[in-house]
Amino acid sequence: MHRCMKMEIFDLHADIGMDVLSKKLKGEQDILKTYHLDKLAQGRVLGVGMACFFEGHENWQVAQAMVNALKAELEMNQDRLHFYKGGSLLKDRLNAMITIEGMCFIEDEPEAHLDWLYGQGARIGSLCWNDENALATGVKGNPLRGLSDLGKRAIQHMNKLNMIIDVSHTNEKSFWDVLATSSKPVIATHSNTRQLSNVDRNLTDQQIKALIQKGGLIGLVAARWFVSKDESIQTAHQLALHAAHIKDLGGMDHLAIGFDYMDFLEGNFGRASMASDLQDASQSQNLIQALRNVGFSEEEIKKVAWGNVESFLDKHLSA
Ligand SMILES: [Zn+2]
Questions:
Q1: 3 in a domain, yes or no?
Q2: How many Å lie between the centroid of ligand 1 and the Cα of residue 2?
Q3: CATH code: domain of residue 22
Q4: Is residue 303 part of a domain?
Q5: Mean pLDDT of the residues in the chain
Q6: How far apart are CA 287 and CA 280, in angstroms?
Q7: Residue 176 alpha carbon to ligand 1 centre in Å
């Protein structure tokens, strides 16, 4: 009956903050309008976590420049988007959040740095990308090293601010340290299951169960190697099977989406990094159809695509 209807989607993770700064430094303007807003609308993506992404070498000046550049673009496009910092999501335009991926730029006084990020509107953040930094250890860092004392202070302060903690890139030791330290639910904005693709960026069943138990979210990611190690099945269908596995583990109310589209990035990233039928935001409905094809009901798909994130944000950012 509703098979052709597009469904509203909240995408928890797209590296748009990074894209805004890098294009701005090349002299471009109006980057959201030129590169992003139409594609998101075509895929009926009505919510997006715009990530300011830091690989491990960036300093505080760079971090501030990226957040400021993204914030300026968000404020400039208020006619087409809602710069979301909490409260209710709107349904008549894009809800755009500032998120922080990696905090290598914090080497002391995490509270003061986090206060500034929060003040600019950032509402989701991860302490590390794949790197090892003063706060935490990412998947490419020393497996025996987890959170530092400074990192624990950062988690406690994020709890105090109501800034949502993202563990998508942490190594296993940091993951468990974050869960033990945080008094609030924790999310993985863009990670799949190791059961279906055994890579370090994906989550073990034990990790998935722990996120569920703590009331968190798990965002399905369309980066092709996280979908499958078999190149012939790097598709939306295979990604939907990750969703089915998380559902089997009790995660129906904890499933979300964090596509991590890279079509707009240069260098090592790009369209070639994505599942074959999820290459940019305009193709996002392919995952909705794939979820139908693997047996999710319309009500369940609404939860994955939008409802679970909406409830989570309502609960944790409305205060
Ligand atoms: Zn990432």
A1: no
A2: 33
A3: 3.20.20.140
A4: yes
A5: 96
A6: 12
A7: 19
299-306 average pLDDT score: 98
Cut 0.85: pTM above it: yes
Please give the residue range of the domain that contains residue 232: 9-317
Rounded to the nearest angstrom, the distance between the alpha carbon of 3 and the centre of ligand 1 is: 31
Q: How confident is the model at residue 190 (pLDDT cuts 50, 70, 90)?
A: very high
pLDDT in tens, 123-148: 999 999 999 999 999 999 999 999 99
Could you tell me if 170 and 140 are in contact, meaning their C-beta atoms sit under 8 angstroms apart? no
Residue 4 falls within a domain, yes or no?
Answer: no
Residue 268 class from Cβ within 10 Å (0-12 exposed, 13-18 middle, 19+ buried)? exposed
Separation of CA 4 and ligand 1 centre (Å): 31
Question: What is the DSSP secondary-structure string of 105-122?
Answer: T--S-HHHHHHHHHHHTE
Query: Measured in angstroms, how far is the CA atom of residue 126 from the centroid of ligand 1?
Result: 10
Q: How confident is the model at residue 178 (pLDDT cuts 50, 70, 90)?
A: very high
Please give the pLDDT value at position 220.
Answer: 98
Count the domains in the chain: 1
- In the reported structure, the alpha carbon of residue 280 is separated from the centroid of ligand 1 by a whole-number distance in angstroms of 16
Quick one: pLDDT at residue 2? Answer: 52
pLDDT at position 270: 79
CA–centroid distance, 122 to ligand 1, in Å, is 16
C-alpha pair distances (Å), 47 with each of 10, 104, 226, 309: 4, 27, 22, 9
Q: Is 2 part of any domain? A: no
